[in-house]
Each structure stands twice: as structure tokens, then as C-alpha cells.
């Protein structure tokens, strides 16, 4: 279903006041802080890989071959970000040097992670989000800007309750005790190895489903208990799509005695065609249409004023 903002606001306000609304943060929220978009991240990842200082010539040669092919694909209009990033990451993961903290290759990778995601300042969107009484704040972003914003505006407890998929036990305890938290579903900048980068569904299956079943279970708890507002979201996160699709299979959206809480995706009107609407409808996600990003900012600010933390 599609909603205009004026139609969606009463629904979101009611959910927020009742403590039944989570928010999921995508990369669009951090753009104003200098964090790259998804495609920009892939391009920077490729450039980083090209400049890693390997000792092993075989590693250097293999990585340069993939990067050169990525350049050719981009020039010919065949640039597939997820495909390229997955192949490149898998080859980097095979390098012994990237597992040795003393190696230059390891330092080059972690310097890139730190400079890309760890040296920026929170923007007004981050501040509005942590200042709103959402039950849980989820994000696929690697940066720690939400945690920083929460600390800066005095929400020390929320800032301290910041976790990644590696903290599955702590997250389940918080959910059972209904304590709010910031949850990094793809990991966080200060603890992110090359084999833990999540680019595609296969990464979700290998990293989350098989190694961190407790975290996967925690996400299912959240999506079956709360509605979710997706913001700064490119409409197709490989990790969360997997979770939502699985839940939709367990709990059919029609002809069922129980249906999942509704989710909402804010999207520009010119991107909200019938294909996106139907694609999201199958996993219980409604579209909220905006005409420009000023409306985006106003919506976040309005919800903060309705139910401040």
C-alpha cells in the first residue's frame, strides 16, 4: 500500500506512542556526515583493495585483475556492485596477510575502515532519531554515528546499549526486558574483519544464519513484536529482505489468524512504481511517499516532537 505523509503520520504517531515502533537506518541517513552511499562504498572498497600493500605477489596480481575487470564493466555499463564486491571480498578473505595484525595489508584494510566510517560527525537526522522514543534503533551502517549522537545529546544509557550481531546474548536479554538499544545488524566500525563484511544474501547465510543463530532469532523477535519504519534505505537490503521474506512465509499476510506488524518504507515518489510497491507488499511493507528530502527531515523531526526520548 502507498501512503501520503499526511495519511501515514497518524499511524506512525499511534505506534510510537504505544511503544510499538522500531526504526531501521540505511546509508542515506549518514550521507550528510560524509559516509558514502552504497554504490560509493563499493567503489571505495574496490579502490582500497587495489592499493593494499601485499607482500605476496599472487595476492596482488589476483586483486588487481578483479579491480581492472570491475573498471571495464563500469565503462561498458555492466557494473554490478554486489557481484563485484562479493568476488573481491572472497578473494581478499583468502589472503593470509589480512589475518595477521602485524602485516601491512591488515593495517591498510583497517585504516580504510577507520577513515571511511570512524572519523565523521553525527548530523541532525542522527540526533532526531536517537532523540525519538523508538523502541529499538536498527542500522545496517558500519559507522557509530548513532551511538555518538546519543551520547552527545545526553542519552547515555542508549549510547551504552549499542551492539552488533556478535552480541547476540545481550541483545536477546534487552529485548526480553524491553530495554531500548542501537543494533548494528551488519557490524560496527571498531570490530569489523574482512570476512565479516555483508554484501549479499550469501554473506547473511554464512555469517549470521550459521555462526550467529541467536542474533538471527533476535531479529525475528523484533519483527514479530514491533512495526518498523525504514529510513535512508535503498529498498533492497540483502540481509533484512531474507528475514522479512522468511517471516512472511511463516505468517501469511492474508487469510491468517495472525499477521505480522506492518512495516513502512519512506521513498521518493518517482521511485515508488508498481513494481516496488508489489515487491514490498509481499513482506508486509508499505510505502510512504515523499517529494524531496526536506519532507524526510520534517517527518523525522515531527516524530521526535510527538514522542521524545
Describe this structure in words.
- The structure is a single chain.
- The protein is built from 14 helices and eight strands.
- It is of the alpha/beta class.
- The chain is globular and about 60 Å long.
- The two termini are 29 Å apart.
- The mean pLDDT is 87.
Q: Quick summary of this structure?
A:
By secondary structure, this protein is α/β, with parallel strands linked by helices. The chain has an eight-stranded parallel sheet with strand order 1-8-7-6-2-3-5-4, with helices on both faces.
Keywords:
globular; 8 strands; 8-stranded parallel sheet; about 300 residues; alpha/beta
Tell me the number of helical segments per DSSP (H or I, 4 or more residues long): 14
Low-confidence stretches: none
Strand order of the largest sheet: 1-8-7-6-2-3-5-4
Task: Work out the radius of gyration.
Answer: 20 Å
SSE class: alpha/beta
Terminal CA distance reads 29 Å
For the residues shown, what is the average pLDDT? 87
Helix/strand order, N-terminal first: EHEHHHHHEHHEHEHHEHEHEH
Give helix % range. Answer: 40-55%
**Strand tally, please?**
8
Strand % is: 5-15%
Shape: globular
Counting copies of identical and different chains, the oligomeric state is single chain
The largest β sheet comes out as:
8 strands, parallel
Amino acid at each position: 500500500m502507498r501512503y501520503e505523509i499526511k495519511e501515514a503520520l497518524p499511524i506512525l504517531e499511534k505506534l510510537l506512542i504505544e511503544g510499538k515502533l522500531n526504526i531501521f537506518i540505511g546509508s542515506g541517513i549518514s550521507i550528510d556526515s560524509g559516509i558514502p552511499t552504497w554504490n560509493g562504498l563499493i567503489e571505495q572498497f574496490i579502490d582500497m583493495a587495489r592499493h593494499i600493500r601485499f607482500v605476496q605477489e599472487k595476492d596482488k596480481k589476483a586483486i588487481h585483475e578483479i579491480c581492472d575487470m570491475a573498471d571495464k564493466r563500469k565503462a561498458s555499463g555492466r557494473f554490478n556492485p554486489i557481484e563485484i564486491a562479493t568476488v573481491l571480498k572472497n578473494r581478499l578473505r583468502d589472503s593470509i596477510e589480512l589475518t595477521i595484525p602485524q602485516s601491512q595489508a591488515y593495517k591498510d584494510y583497517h585504516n580504510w575502515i577507520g577513515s571511511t566510517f570512524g572519523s565523521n560527525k553525527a548530523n541532525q537526522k542522527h540526533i532526531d532519531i536517537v532523540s525519538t522514543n523508538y523502541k529499538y534503533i536498527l542500522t545496517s551502517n558500519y559507522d557509530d554515528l548513532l551511538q555518538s549522537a546519543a551520547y552527545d545529546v545526553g542519552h547515555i544509557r542508549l549510547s551504552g546499549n549499542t551492539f552488533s550481531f556478535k552480541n547476540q546474548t545481550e541483545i536477546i536479554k534487552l529485548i526480553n526486558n524491553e530495554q531500548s538499544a542501537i543494533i548494528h545488524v551488519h557490524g560496527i566500525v571498531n570490530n569489523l574483519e574482512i570476512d565479516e563484511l555483508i554484501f549479499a544474501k550469501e554473506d547473511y547465510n554464512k555469517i549470521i544464519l550459521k555462526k550467529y543463530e541467536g542474533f538471527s532469532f533476535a531479529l525475528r523477535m523484533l519483527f514479530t513484536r514491533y512495526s518498523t519504519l525504514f529510513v535512508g534505505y535503498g529498498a533492497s537490503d540483502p540481509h533484512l529482505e531474507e528475514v522479512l521474506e522468511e517471516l512472511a512465509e511463516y505468517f501469511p499476510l492474508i487469510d491468517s489468524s495472525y499477521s505480522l506488524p506492518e512495516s513502512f518504507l519512506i521513498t521518493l515518489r518517482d521511485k515508488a512504481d508498481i513494481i516496488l510497491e508489489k515487491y514490498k507488499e509481499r513482506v508486509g511493507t508499505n510505502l510512504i511517499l515523499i517529494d524531496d528530502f526536506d519532507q524526510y527531515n520534517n517527518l523525522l523531526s515531527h516524530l521526535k516532537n510527538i514522542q521524545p526520548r
